[in-house]
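Lab meeting notes turned into a lecture example. A postdoc, R.K., suggested we walk through two folding results consecutively so the class can see how the record format repeats. The first protein's sequence and structure tokens come next.
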Amino acid sequence: MGGRVYPTQFHSIITLLETCQNHFSKIETKSESYALNEVELLACVPRPKSLRDFYAFEAHVQNARRKRGLDVPPEWYDFPVFYFSNHHAIVPPFGEVKKPSDTAMLDYELEIACVIGKDGIDISRKNALHHIAGYCIMNDWSARDIQMCEVKVGLGPAKAKDFATTLGGELVTHDELADVFANDRLNLEMDVFVNGKRLGGGNFKSIHFSFAEMIERASRNAWLYAGDVIGSGTVGTGCLFELDNDQFPYLNVGDTVEMRIERLGVIRNKIA
């Protein structure tokens, strides 16, 4: 038909629409509400198509490398870098996280993630925000002892981070955050608590590379699809690895990690 629609087809389409309208008008709708403890709240994107996590906060990079006696490599300032995490290992915002049996250095990472809402390739930073469906809290769980062994090989912290990533239950759209958005960055306070005690956090506006720059980098010569998730990386002091671990030890079974980000809500996970 070459893309044309003929009168007989219009009649069929109209008939179909009328049938659907009649059907849905007969469905009885109920307005009910439930307390949060009566339901299981899933991640806003329970099964992302992919999960990229960036390394975009300068303070985190400085703190983590200083602890290992290293400076920030000059190349870090040239472009935002990321690794692919396990998009099949998403944990609900209030679900339990199973501690990997082969780690003694279980850690959290306080981040914001953006969810792609529009397909694209070679997206410029100027147009990148049009490809974002919304934002949520993200916890990039990490096994630091495994990570420190892996990175020596040069291929990144894959196994150290493939067991769990928590995404918030709320996806907040860009227009809802327009009043706290400036210079391509969100002015949002971020806090992390372990067993009720605040251990770190900061403000997202301190990020060195914006989400627009991350999307530009991620989409260069590669498609981004609706449902892909992009993590910001950890805000400064947003993980135990940056802290004095004699005073702030790594996580163990029974510990509870809570993250709060202004306007994006709360996630709370107990180590099982």
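The second example is placed directly after the first for contrast:
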Amino acid sequence: MHGARRWMCCLMALAVIAAVAAPASATTLMRESLDKLVASNRTVIVGEVLDIDSHWNDDGTFILTDVTVAVTDVLKGRLADREITVTLMGGRVGDTTTLIIGGAQLIPGNAYVLFLNEEDLPGKRALTVRDLCQGAFDLVMTEDGLRAISQANQHPLVPDELGYIDAPGGVEGIPFKAMVDSIREIAARPQGARPEVN
């Protein structure tokens, strides 16, 4: 049974990797502007990761990781609780690891700006970082103050329709307060009211 489970897990992981790597269908790794990230996700939060728990889905065919996040601010959407569970594809259970290329990396004790949406994952519907690495911004204290740095800087992005290839903020990131203000402004305005924030 364990051999069959591992085989199925490998097949699913290869399918995900192939989908991400193929330019025609790699929409998750096509460069997304801040406007598009805000518009395409129902919830945007600032939060700290408290705990992670990787497990097999109910069918025993794919590893998922539940991430417990303490929400410190809601920038878009509404949440009933200040402690939420975000589920990511992939993880490690025993000696089996499912790696999602370009996936968000969330570590207990670290704080992030997360773009979240409910999606169908293997075996369950859950709140997740739909845009993979583009939907997770690390909060990092620098000499110039707190900045939000996109995890997409660690992965090549396909240029967007305007030809931009760098993640919003680039490798230096965006000043945290400026990002919070931009997200709230984007979420509040009618679509198309002004040029996109790239």
